[in-house]
Design brief:
There is one protein chain. By secondary structure, the protein is mostly helical. The protein has a domain at about 70-138. The protein has six helices and no strands. It has helices at about 1-35, 50-65, 65-70, 75-95, 100-105, 110-130. α4 (about 75-95) runs antiparallel to α6.
Protein backbone atom coordinates (compact mmCIF):
# COMPACT_ATOMS: atom_id res chain seq x y z
CA UNK A 1 0.00 0.00 0.00
CA UNK A 2 2.80 2.42 0.85
CA UNK A 3 4.58 1.73 -2.42
CA UNK A 4 1.40 2.51 -4.36
CA UNK A 5 0.86 5.71 -2.36
CA UNK A 6 4.49 6.74 -2.82
CA UNK A 7 4.26 6.05 -6.55
CA UNK A 8 1.05 8.10 -6.87
CA UNK A 9 2.34 11.03 -4.81
CA UNK A 10 5.81 11.31 -6.27
CA UNK A 11 5.43 10.07 -9.83
CA UNK A 12 1.82 10.59 -10.98
CA UNK A 13 0.66 13.71 -9.14
CA UNK A 14 3.40 16.03 -10.48
CA UNK A 15 2.46 15.17 -14.06
CA UNK A 16 -1.21 15.80 -13.32
CA UNK A 17 -0.44 19.16 -11.72
CA UNK A 18 1.75 20.22 -14.67
CA UNK A 19 -1.00 19.16 -17.09
CA UNK A 20 -3.64 21.13 -15.16
CA UNK A 21 -1.35 24.17 -14.93
CA UNK A 22 -0.53 24.32 -18.63
CA UNK A 23 -4.13 23.56 -19.62
CA UNK A 24 -5.35 26.45 -17.47
CA UNK A 25 -2.61 28.70 -18.81
CA UNK A 26 -3.54 27.84 -22.41
CA UNK A 27 -7.21 28.49 -21.65
CA UNK A 28 -6.46 31.87 -20.06
CA UNK A 29 -4.21 32.86 -22.98
CA UNK A 30 -6.93 31.87 -25.43
CA UNK A 31 -9.54 33.92 -23.52
CA UNK A 32 -7.14 36.86 -23.35
CA UNK A 33 -6.27 36.68 -27.05
CA UNK A 34 -9.90 36.42 -28.12
CA UNK A 35 -11.10 39.29 -25.89
CA UNK A 36 -11.81 42.65 -27.50
CA UNK A 37 -9.23 45.37 -26.92
CA UNK A 38 -9.90 47.46 -23.85
CA UNK A 39 -9.25 51.13 -23.19
CA UNK A 40 -5.88 50.54 -21.47
CA UNK A 41 -3.26 53.06 -22.41
CA UNK A 42 0.15 51.75 -23.38
CA UNK A 43 2.86 51.75 -20.73
CA UNK A 44 5.52 53.13 -23.03
CA UNK A 45 7.27 56.24 -21.69
CA UNK A 46 7.03 59.59 -23.42
CA UNK A 47 9.65 60.36 -26.07
CA UNK A 48 10.42 63.90 -24.91
CA UNK A 49 11.89 62.94 -21.51
CA UNK A 50 15.46 62.10 -20.64
CA UNK A 51 16.56 58.47 -20.37
CA UNK A 52 16.44 58.54 -16.57
CA UNK A 53 13.00 60.18 -16.63
CA UNK A 54 11.71 57.57 -19.06
CA UNK A 55 13.19 54.75 -16.98
CA UNK A 56 11.59 56.13 -13.81
CA UNK A 57 8.19 56.56 -15.50
CA UNK A 58 8.36 53.07 -16.97
CA UNK A 59 9.30 51.49 -13.61
CA UNK A 60 6.60 53.49 -11.81
CA UNK A 61 3.90 52.39 -14.27
CA UNK A 62 4.98 48.77 -13.98
CA UNK A 63 5.19 48.79 -10.18
CA UNK A 64 1.88 50.55 -9.60
CA UNK A 65 -0.17 49.35 -12.62
CA UNK A 66 -1.02 53.00 -13.27
CA UNK A 67 -2.73 52.46 -16.65
CA UNK A 68 -5.02 49.86 -15.09
CA UNK A 69 -5.88 52.14 -12.15
CA UNK A 70 -7.56 54.66 -14.44
CA UNK A 71 -9.70 51.99 -16.10
CA UNK A 72 -10.80 49.61 -13.34
CA UNK A 73 -9.96 50.26 -9.71
CA UNK A 74 -11.19 46.86 -8.43
CA UNK A 75 -9.11 45.00 -10.99
CA UNK A 76 -6.14 47.25 -10.15
CA UNK A 77 -6.40 46.41 -6.43
CA UNK A 78 -6.77 42.69 -7.12
CA UNK A 79 -3.79 42.73 -9.51
CA UNK A 80 -1.63 44.62 -7.07
CA UNK A 81 -2.47 42.34 -4.12
CA UNK A 82 -1.90 39.27 -6.31
CA UNK A 83 1.55 40.44 -7.40
CA UNK A 84 2.58 41.45 -3.87
CA UNK A 85 1.61 37.97 -2.69
CA UNK A 86 3.54 36.42 -5.56
CA UNK A 87 6.68 38.40 -4.72
CA UNK A 88 6.39 37.44 -1.05
CA UNK A 89 5.96 33.77 -1.97
CA UNK A 90 8.99 33.85 -4.26
CA UNK A 91 11.01 35.57 -1.53
CA UNK A 92 9.88 32.95 0.99
CA UNK A 93 10.81 30.08 -1.29
CA UNK A 94 14.20 31.68 -1.82
CA UNK A 95 14.87 30.66 1.79
CA UNK A 96 15.26 27.09 0.56
CA UNK A 97 18.58 28.14 -0.96
CA UNK A 98 19.81 30.97 1.30
CA UNK A 99 19.33 31.45 5.02
CA UNK A 100 18.41 35.03 5.96
CA UNK A 101 20.54 35.28 9.09
CA UNK A 102 20.72 39.12 9.11
CA UNK A 103 16.91 39.25 8.89
CA UNK A 104 16.53 36.82 11.78
CA UNK A 105 19.00 38.83 13.87
CA UNK A 106 17.19 42.06 13.04
CA UNK A 107 13.84 40.57 14.07
CA UNK A 108 15.28 38.89 17.18
CA UNK A 109 14.46 35.38 15.98
CA UNK A 110 17.13 33.04 17.30
CA UNK A 111 15.84 29.46 17.38
CA UNK A 112 14.86 27.18 14.52
CA UNK A 113 11.40 26.77 16.05
CA UNK A 114 10.80 30.52 15.93
CA UNK A 115 12.08 30.66 12.33
CA UNK A 116 9.70 27.83 11.40
CA UNK A 117 6.79 29.60 13.13
CA UNK A 118 7.60 32.86 11.35
CA UNK A 119 7.83 31.02 8.00
CA UNK A 120 4.47 29.34 8.62
CA UNK A 121 2.68 32.58 9.50
CA UNK A 122 4.29 34.76 6.82
CA UNK A 123 3.98 32.04 4.17
CA UNK A 124 0.32 31.52 4.99
CA UNK A 125 -0.31 35.25 4.80
CA UNK A 126 1.50 35.51 1.47
CA UNK A 127 -0.48 32.53 0.17
CA UNK A 128 -3.76 34.17 1.16
CA UNK A 129 -2.66 37.43 -0.49
CA UNK A 130 -1.71 35.47 -3.60
CA UNK A 131 -4.92 33.44 -3.88
CA UNK A 132 -7.61 35.88 -2.73
CA UNK A 133 -7.71 38.02 -5.91
CA UNK A 134 -8.07 34.98 -8.18
CA UNK A 135 -11.12 33.62 -6.37
CA UNK A 136 -14.33 34.13 -8.32
CA UNK A 137 -16.43 37.05 -7.08
CA UNK A 138 -19.51 36.15 -5.11
Amino acid sequence: MIDLLTYLLFYVTPYISVLVFFSGLAYKLYKWASAPNGPLSPIYPYASKSFLGKAFDYAFKIATFKPLYGVNKKLWLASWVFHVGLILLLFGHFRLFVEFTPLWNLMGITTKEKIARFALISGGTAGILFLTPVLPPS
